[in-house]
């Protein structure tokens, strides 16, 4: 059975199965990927698979380090209603942005603990977030570090964060944000659109709807199939618009302090038992969800531009600030996962290698 003949998965977990009698890696890095909106993980299968292949190739001759790549659909975007964890979340969809952050934080800590219990290795997490997933990643850091400072640390070691085409401030000022905000201000908009979408797609078989989506959007077959399944899913359309409304009104000002933005800085000193995560960001040259002035202001105030592979000498400049790249050559779009998953995975693999190299020099209590 081909992938397109199967319903889109709600979870993708790529790892090397344990071999009997073979010693587990001393250190395991979980690449935990957080999707954008709409939050169906199947859109990112090519990206995640290629990223895993690149990282696994790096460790083929070094069993001291192992990589795992994990991602799941955001809550409420599951194509099969049986996959929605209403019993755990104590409410039915749609879920707001704060719900998504809580669910993701719980999932990250539970996954890290389960991998540690299963392997006995030193488990560290690198969060990779696309679009609103980058915002969720930074919020996970903030919350976990707040737990640690309160003496409630769950030993979840976040080594770094990679934000891809991140919408972390002022999303309503973007080109698409300006267009969408008037509709999303209506509290009933998400429900009304979902009812209309359900009526229009109810009688269309999935295969026919997939062809229709491909004809209208120009998406390749796998993305068209995922989109068709999204349109026919029990809560997907309402979930996407409900969450988008929260994004418009909650993703505005920079809400994080130096304990998040400080990256590997030794100053100001942190009272948290773990080093600050190492941050990397990749922006598009033109992004309809991120205004140029918003991107440039964020880089100017919180980050620094990269200079290829040149590493700054310690103590020179502001080398502690997170590196923020602008893609000025490839022309990758905000929705890179549709047709540019492979080259973006290659860029991200380089970011991950850099984070791991720096993380190897640091100590966790």
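-> sequence recovered:
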């Amino acid at each position: 059975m081909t992938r397109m003949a199967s319903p889109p998965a709600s979870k993708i977990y790529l790892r090397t199965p344990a071999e009997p009698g073979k010693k587990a890696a001393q250190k395991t890095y979980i690449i935990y990927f957080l999707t954008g909106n709409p939050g169906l993980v199947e859109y990112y299968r090519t990206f995640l698979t290629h990223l895993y292949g690149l990282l696994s190739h790096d460790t083929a001759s070094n069993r001291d380090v192992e990589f795992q790549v994990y991602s799941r659909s955001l809550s409420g975007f599951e194509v099969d209603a049986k996959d929605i964890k209403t019993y755990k979340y104590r409410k039915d969809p749609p879920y707001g942005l704060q719900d998504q952050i809580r669910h993701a934080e719980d999932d990250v800590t539970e996954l890290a603990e389960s991998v540690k219990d299963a392997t006995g290795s030193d488990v560290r997490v690198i969060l990779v977030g696309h679009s609103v997933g980058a915002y969720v990643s930074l919020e996970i850091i903030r919350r976990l570090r707040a737990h640690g400072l309160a003496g409630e640390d769950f030993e979840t070691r976040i080594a770094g964060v990679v934000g891809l085409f991140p919408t972390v401030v002022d999303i309503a000022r973007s080109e698409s944000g300006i267009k969408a905000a008037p509709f999303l201000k209506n509290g009933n908009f998400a429900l009304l659109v979902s009812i209309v979408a359900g009526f229009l797609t109810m009688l269309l078989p999935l295969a026919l709807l997939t062809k229709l989506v491909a004809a209208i959007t120009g998406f390749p077959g796998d993305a068209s199939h995922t989109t068709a399944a999204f349109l026919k899913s029990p809560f997907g359309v309402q979930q996407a618009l409900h969450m988008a409304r929260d994004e418009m009104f909650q993703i505005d000002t920079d809400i994080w302090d130096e304990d998040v933005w400080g990256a590997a800085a030794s100053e100001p000193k942190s009272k948290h038992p773990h080093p600050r995560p190492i941050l990397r960001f990749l922006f598009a040259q033109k992004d309809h969800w991120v205004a140029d002035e918003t991107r440039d202001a964020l880089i100017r105030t919180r980050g620094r531009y990269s200079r290829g592979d040149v590493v700054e000498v310690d103590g020179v400049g502001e080398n502690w600030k997170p590196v923020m790249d602008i893609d000025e050559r490839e022309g990758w779009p905000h929705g890179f996962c549709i047709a540019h998953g492979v080259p973006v995975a290659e860029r991200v693999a380089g970011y991950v290698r850099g984070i791991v190299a720096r993380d190897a020099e640091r100590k966790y209590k």
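Residues 9 and 216 are 24 Å apart (CA to CA).
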